[in-house]
Protein: RBR-type E3 ubiquitin transferase
Organism: Nyssa sinensis
Amino acid sequence: MFSVDGCQHRYCFSCMKQHVEMKLLQGMLPKCPHEGCHSVLKIKSCKKFLTSELYVSMSQRIKEASIPATEKVYCPYPRCSALMSKSEVLGKAANAYAGAQQTGAQKCTKCSGLFCLNCKVPWHSNMTCYDYKKLNPYSCVGDAMLKSLAKRKSWRQCVKCNHMIELLEGCHHIYCRCGYQFCYNCGAEWKDKKATCRCPIWDERNIIRNGHNRPQ
């Protein structure tokens, strides 16, 4: 049996593994599964039943939860994509070379790749941020197509981290990977687990599957 640190609620290792895996897939930081309990699971204790992949995923979630949405910075290089905080990046830059904060040029704390903190793209040398954005209204070639597709498909984009979300099944209450909650129907924020809009909580088309999609 596994005892949760702090509250001492006990569950079998198999159930805890499934609980943690599900919460991580939902982009949430796992807590004690006991109803009404808010004890946060400690990764050191969870190592007893987590696979190496789940351990890495949980470590990432813990780091994401510790950084406010407005402070999150992701390395723009696809082979890295490391998560950093603005203070972490600027702190490294201040010691690395002068004028970095003024120009916007920063180094990734993981791969050391040079990127623009203002434009969130690999560093555009010999070009100001204004000129770069004027010549590149989209940060990459696929962005224009993505924006167009998102509009046609009625996808929603999180206003905190810009993550694109598509609702396939379930209610309109969206819990983004960054922790921001909002209504998928209109984009209004959810506060204290309650909607701030008057949209219906669900659409039957997203709750009841067609007969041919049901398992036989």
Helices lie at 13-25, 43-46, 52-66, 86-96, 100-103, 129-135, 141-153, 204-207. The longest strand covers residues 72-74. The two ends are 36 Å apart (CA to CA).
